[in-house]
Task: inverse folding
């Protein structure tokens, strides 16, 4: 008999650890997003770690700004950013306050509320694609900048809550380079995913964007 996922909310102490400890430990955890239309639950299957001032790939590499301020705050809060003028991406702040490290949620499996996620992800060919990639994940869960700074350690019933779920055994965790990260930050193998999970997004190396002439 398979045990049901643990619905105990993750504690602040869980997120107050080094980002490279938190990131793989988020795999298998359950994110509950409460919307006006009802809850959506996602099992985390892929993440990327970003290590603040020591990481050229991090938004906090050059210091604090109005955009990344949440990253410098208490662990366990949500950092949401807008990218390419089109998409939102969701991160979880971790490490000690002031360190500005965070974990990007890259992909997940919708385990409850798929009917709601489908209304936001009309282009998804099947349910495995609903949250397959960070922008798709945020879209499926109706996450935007209005949720920037939300406390994900709040009791279940809040806008966003991380539950203990079912942690993934270490032998099922894989890691490799982060997707689309260029320069010195591109060499870090700080992307973590569940081996052979169909909801994990495909890896893509960084491709320089061409300016329109």
Result:
């Amino acid at each position: 008999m398979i045990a049901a996922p643990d619905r105990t909310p993750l504690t602040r102490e869980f997120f107050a650890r080094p980002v490279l400890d938190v990131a793989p430990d988020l795999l298998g955890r359950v994110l509950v997003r409460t919307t006006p239309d009802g809850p959506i639950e996602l099992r985390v299957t892929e993440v990327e770690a970003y290590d603040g001032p020591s990481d050229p790939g991090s938004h906090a590499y050059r210091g604090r700004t109005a955009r990344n301020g949440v990253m410098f705050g208490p662990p366990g809060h949500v950092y949401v950013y807008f990218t390419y003028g089109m998409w939102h991406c969701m991160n979880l702040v971790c490490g000690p306050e002031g360190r500005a490290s965070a974990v990007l949620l890259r992909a997940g499996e919708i385990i409850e509320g798929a009917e709601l996620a489908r209304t936001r992800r009309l282009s998804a060919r099947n349910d495995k694609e609903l949250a397959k990639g960070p922008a798709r994940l945020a879209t499926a869960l109706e996450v935007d900048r209005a949720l920037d700074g939300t406390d994900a350690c709040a009791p279940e019933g809040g806008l966003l809550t991380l539950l203990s779920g079912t942690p993934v055994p270490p032998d099922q965790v894989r890691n490799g380079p982060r997707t689309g990260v260029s320069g010195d930050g591109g060499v870090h193998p700080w992307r973590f995913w569940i081996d052979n999970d169909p909801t994990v997004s495909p890896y893509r190396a960084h491709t320089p964007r061409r300016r329109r002439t």
In short: The mean pLDDT is 92. Helices lie at 12-15, 19-25, 114-120, 134-140.
